[in-house]
Amino acid sequence: MPRYALAGPANVGKSSLFYALTGIYVRTANYPGTTVEIRRALIRRGGVTIEVVDLPGIINIKSPVDEDERVAFREAFEGNYDGVVVVAAPHATKEAIELAKLVSQKKPVIFVYNMVDLAKPPWTEEELSKTLGVPVVFTSAVKRVGIDKLTELMARGVGGKITGDVHIEVPAAVALKAGIIARPPFAVATLLLLGLAMLFFLLAFMEGVTPFGEFPYAFIPTWDSISESVAEAIKASVGDPVLASLLADGLWGALSTVVSISVYVLVALALVLFFEDSGLIGLLTYKLERRLAALGIPPRGLVCLLVGVSCNVPAVSTARVLWGHGNRLLTALLVPYVPCVARLAIFTAVAVAALTKTPYLIPLAIFLPYAAAFAVLWVASAVYRLMSGVKPVPAGEVPPTPLMLPNGRIYLTKLAISMKDFFTKVGLLIAIFVAALWPLTHFGPGGYTEDMAASYLAELGRAIEPLFAPLGLPWNVAASLVGGWVFKEVVLGLMEGLKALDALVALPLPSVLAFLVFSAFYSACVATLAAVYRTAGARATALSAAVQLALAYAAAYLTFVATSALMR
């Protein structure tokens, strides 16, 4: 069975070519010892089965700096392949030829010139093949041009060694568009507008929240209403109260949570994947990357961080489509510091309940956790870079992809595969942990209980109360925050069941503000942690959880001390 790897510079449409060759039947797995994902698929041609492997894109051809690039080079040079398909594009011909020269010293090469629909090559396939000394195929992945010919060459097991060279200028129209759009002032403004547009769309479509009032057809409120009706029907049809609660609150609650999060992920991923495949994100961040990377912010992760304001889970999940191991990892680790809509609900409810006697402080109290979270995000970036050695990687030698309209079939294939991975590798974990919260809140030392104050969750809150004593927070507030580790949406319900809101009303202002700052980013929920684990691995996820908790406690304590000093 012939085995071929697809290699090439980033931004040349290599992954689109892979999906044009293979369709939806793709297996994904991490490269051994890394969190770098490699896609594999089997295709058939004339009775011959061919294995095709999509390697990560390479930006720094001469001196790879990112783990993605090192894995791609290692596989291309040392992997068990019958040949390597090196993919070029009008804007990255020189870089692809340099890569093909290196690879052809170890493996037979087929040279693919992609995106011929954007710029017509100045020579024919035969002329370029004769010049380079290897088989050449002109393709357009989005229009399926040249796919059959490339498949035929791989089925025959052909390839060659680069013996010549050719130079082509980036087409003037492509260069002009890139030059205008990539200018930093325009790029920054467009990135912010793009991120805010995505955020407003997600908030309106999913939560029903708009600057002009509630949107009546949002998914989350509609699904919550359906879910509550189903839960009530289950309880009404089951006589045993314990079994009814298990089925309705535990199992159905877990399934309902997975559905709501999955739709969030689907919508956010569809948007980010469209912008990434169209070349827009790469083009907008092209000239900003070195400046942002120097500040410790993943350039292409900016949009994901903005998505995190609506929900952290899709923001982390969409980070998987970004180029560069360092960019993906740092984005995934930083997203949980961005307060989501569920945390905004906590800020608002607590501020309104606890500050009724000083209503002029309510806007400040709601703004404070956001300010603290974004300030700590910069600190966290420095901590992660120092402790794990990961850093955002700016674009190197390869220009960004020209703007294009993604192919619908390939785009939907990528989206379907990404969602399948989410369901199988993240969705199951979410369901398990959400279901695990049920026995904590419905059982206690005395057995099954409807009184949450007698549950094991309450006992856990009393056990950790001394840790929150320096912040002036009682046990029932601490217990509510423990539930937030599972899911932030349950915190307000737990606070009501444990009478924690009543306790907060009686607390002094420093303790209330300390609670707001701590709750802003003390931990990602298990859904977000599952997504971080899928992207970053177990070690980085554990590091993230520990650092986040420590920074949240430190920020909350500083808030408590500073506010206490100001009130003297």
UniProtKB/TrEMBL annotation:
One of its GO terms (cellular component) is plasma membrane. It holds the Pfam family FeoB_N. It comes from the Archaea. Keywords: Membrane, Transmembrane, Transmembrane helix. InterPro entries: FeoB_GTPase, G_FEOB_dom, Gate_dom, GTP-bd, P-loop_NTPase, Small_GTP-bd. GO terms for molecular function: ferrous iron transmembrane transporter activity; GTP binding. Residues 1-160 form the FeoB-type G domain. The chain crosses the membrane at residues 186-206, 251-275, 329-354, 360-384, 422-440, 512-533, 545-567. This is Small GTP-binding protein. The lineage of its organism: Archaea, Thermoproteota, Thermoprotei, Thermoproteales, Thermoproteaceae.
